[in-house]
Design a protein that fits this description.
Blueprint (H helix, E strand, L loop, with lengths): L6 E2 L3 E5 L5 H8 L2 H4 L9 H9 L12 E8 L5 E11 L4 E8 L8 H15 L5 E7 L3 H9 L3 E12 L2 E11 H8 L6 H4 L7
Parallel strand pairs: 5-6
Antiparallel strand pairs: 1-2, 2-3, 3-4, 4-5, 6-8, 7-8
Length: about 200
């Protein structure tokens, strides 16, 4: 199955990643501030090309896989970031979300708006019971984003990973479908939910 692209929120257009995104993808992932709390080092163009090629899928993620989507401000036509949803476990109905944004686009709530969309996809389309997110314990900006979405801080794992030459903490946030519905109401009338998947009609 595939999403009925493009998806739109109030201000954003969310669509598959494309090889045409290379210039912007490289600009974002070559920024040391962007990758500071990620597993990756700042990317050169060749590395960014390979990294992008792995993200250009329009298919619903299967167990253990991710679907990454590009984010633009409607009418501007420039990639400002990416959101992703992973199907972690079919048995446990567990999905995970992630996001990476150009710091130049911060301060407008775009990352929160786009991440809310993929959480909604996880619940409404993938049938998740629980949606989680993992982040470096030092990344307070990312933690605040998840808190704005109503996600609960469930765990703080102390020095559980050795990344870029140092031991780092990992923090886990999550929200259950019932909690999400209590806070956000029933399935919302956004494109991804109104049209759901092309194969569903």
């Amino acid at each position: 199955m595939q999403l009925a692209f493009p998806l739109r929120t109030e201000r954003l257009l969310v669509r598959p990643m494309s090889p045409d995104d290379l210039t912007r993808h490289h600009a974002i992932f070559s920024d040391p501030a962007v990758v500071r709390y990620l597993y990756e080092e700042p990317m050169d163009l060749s590395t960014a090309r390979e990294h992008l090629a792995r993200r250009c899928s329009v298919d619903l993620p299967v167990e253990g896989g991710w679907q990454n989507l590009g984010v633009e401000v409607q009418g501007e036509g420039e990639l400002i970031g990416e959101v992703g949803v992973a199907f972690v476990s079919e048995v446990h109905h567990h999905c995970e979300v992630g996001y990476v944004f150009d710091p130049a686009s911060s301060g407008h709530g775009y990352a929160t708006e786009a991440t809310s969309l993929v959480v909604e996809i996880a619940f409404s389309v993938l049938g998740a019971h629980r949606v989680s997110a993992r982040l470096d314990g030092r990344n307070r900006r990312s933690a605040r984003l998840l808190e704005r979405l109503g996600m609960r801080r469930e765990a703080h794992l102390v020095e559980n990973e050795f990344i870029k030459g140092e031991w780092t903490d990992e923090v886990v946030y999550a929200v259950l479908e019932g909690e999400w519905r209590s806070a956000h109401g029933p399935v919302r009338p956004i494109d991804v939910v109104a049209s759901l998947w092309e194969s569903a009609t």
